[in-house]
């Protein structure tokens, strides 16, 4: 019996980390309907699980502007993209992936193109640089049939900045992949196990940051606030987990011994639920975020969150409900509110209980992925 060949689905991302981390399960579902190809920069130092289910073509995209490399990538992209045929469905993601997604729509006008926004890189920029990246986002929206956002506050933020968006859709109720609440749940024995592993006392207090380590993420503010609070709390510790993009180890090594010896700098971990389990507070000092997946992961475990008052986390970090917000760029307000969480255990527990219930109702992984899958299929009809 003749079966019609699957239509091609092309994923475009400047780095494989994004689809691996956020889209693995949704891509697995889409692969049953489409012949799926990913054009991306393969991180050869990591095991890429996506390679077991879809076809991946390596293009050496760089995060920053590099004229020679970008020209090479442009030629490679056009060649590999055109080889995949005329009509196809396209999903682009990441800021540089957005540019190539726009190019793909120009190369193949009849194709349906979807772009996934997970934040705006220009939100903290000024002058010409801000204008340049704003216009890139406007082009992305213009040359997309549908644009998805992982938080409603992003859509509102763009509209408040004079973006005309008639093709915007919110992914489920927000979040790009939700949370597996069966994995991200409180486990007392794991808490004891990991405290012993890092030689922490039972009564120690643990602050945790999980994510990329760069200036936009507010890491230097977090370390400065931690240093001040450490003076009055000898059993206070800070864990920084993620890829170091700013040589933060140099700053840490230059601190006084009491502070330096209380900071644990770790590379990214796949089992972050184990590390969140022994945290007392999750710190998210970012200057910008599209949504804040780690917020709902911490909340699912019952860990209160503290973060700056930024638009991207307004849908998941609710002030005085599952965490506290401080005034952006105010280290004093950050310190005061973080100290409030440290000294009031009952308050932390109340926020943690609220967070678990909140995630269970709005951001369960199976619900988010099922809804997003249906939304994507409808976008390609």
Describe this structure in words.
This protein is an alpha/beta fold. The chain has 2 domains: 7-178 and 365-379, 3-Layer(aba) Sandwich (Rossmann fold); 188-362, Rossmann fold (3-Layer(aba) Sandwich). It is built from 15 helices and 13 strands. The chain has a 7-stranded parallel sheet. Helix 2 (24-30) packs across helix 15 (365-379), helix 4 (95-107) crosses helix 5 and helix 8 (219-230) crosses helix 13 (331-343). The longest helix is centred in the C-terminal third of the chain and has 18 residues, at 345-362. The protein is globular and about 65 Å long. The two termini are 25 Å apart. The mean pLDDT is 93.
List the helices and strands and how they pair.
Layout: E1 7-12, H1 17-22, H2 24-30, E2 34-40, E3 55-58, H3 67-83, E4 89-93, H4 95-107, E5 112-117, H5 127-142, E6 146-149, H6 152-160, E7 168-170, H7 188-197, E8 205-210, H8 219-230, E9 236-241, H9 248-253, H10 257-260, E10 263-266, H11 272-277, E11 281-284, H12 293-301, E12 305-308, E13 323-326, H13 331-343, H14 345-362, H15 365-379
Helix pairs in contact: 2-15, 4-5, 8-13, 12-14
CATH architecture label of the largest domain: 3-Layer(aba) Sandwich
Order of H and E elements = EHHEEHEHEHEHEHEHEHHEHEHEEHHH
CATH class category label of the largest domain: Alpha Beta
**Assembly category:** single chain
Termini separation (Å)? Answer: 25 Å
Tally of alpha and pi helices: 15
**Could you tell me the number of beta strands?**
13
Question: What general form does the structure show?
Answer: globular
CATH topology grouping of the largest domain:
Rossmann fold
Helix-residue proportion? 40-55%
Mean pLDDT: 93
- Class from helix and strand fractions: alpha/beta
Q: CATH H level of the largest domain: which superfamily?
A: Glycogen Phosphorylase B
The figure for the number of domains is: 2
């Amino acid at each position: 019996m003749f079966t019609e060949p699957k239509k091609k689905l092309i994923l475009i991302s400047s780095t494989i980390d994004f689809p691996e981390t956020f889209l693995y399960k949704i891509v697995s579902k889409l692969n049953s309907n489409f012949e799926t190809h990913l054009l991306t920069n393969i991180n050869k130092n990591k095991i890429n699980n996506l390679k077991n289910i879809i076809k991946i073509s390596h293009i050496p995209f760089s995060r920053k502007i590099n004229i020679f490399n970008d020209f090479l990538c442009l030629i490679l992209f056009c060649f590999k993209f055109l080889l995949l045929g005329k009509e196809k469905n396209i999903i682009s993601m990441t800021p540089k992936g957005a540019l190539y997604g726009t190019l793909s729509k120009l190369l193949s006008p009849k194709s349906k193109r979807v772009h996934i926004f997970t934040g705006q890189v220009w939100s903290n920029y000024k002058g010409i640089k801000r204008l340049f990246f704003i216009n890139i986002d406007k082009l992305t929206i213009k040359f997309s049939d549908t644009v998805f956002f992982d938080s409603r506050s992003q859509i509102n933020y763009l509209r408040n900045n004079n973006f005309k968006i008639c093709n915007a859709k919110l992914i489920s109720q927000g979040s790009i992949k939700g949370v597996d609440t069966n994995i991200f749940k409180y486990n007392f024995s794991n808490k004891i196990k990991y405290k012993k592993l890092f030689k922490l006392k039972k009564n120690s207090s643990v602050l945790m940051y999980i994510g990329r380590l760069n200036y936009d993420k507010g890491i230097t503010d977090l370390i400065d606030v931690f240093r001040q609070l450490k003076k009055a709390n000898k059993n206070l510790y800070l864990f920084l987990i993620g890829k170091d993009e700013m040589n933060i180890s140099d700053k840490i090594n230059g601190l006084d011994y009491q502070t330096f010896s209380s900071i644990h700098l770790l590379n990214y971990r796949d089992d972050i639920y184990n590390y969140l389990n022994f945290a007392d507070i999750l710190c998210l000092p970012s200057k910008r975020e599209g949504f804040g997946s780690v917020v709902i992961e911490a909340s699912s475990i019952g860990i209160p969150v503290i973060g700056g008052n930024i638009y991207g986390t307004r849908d998941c970090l609710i002030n005085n409900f599952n965490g506290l917000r401080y005034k952006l760029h105010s280290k004093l307000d950050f310190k005061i509110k973080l100290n409030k969480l440290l000294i009031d255990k009952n308050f932390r527990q109340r926020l943690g209980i609220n967070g678990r219930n909140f995630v269970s109702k709005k951001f369960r992984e199976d619900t988010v992925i099922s809804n997003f899958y249906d939304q994507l299929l409808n976008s390609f009809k």
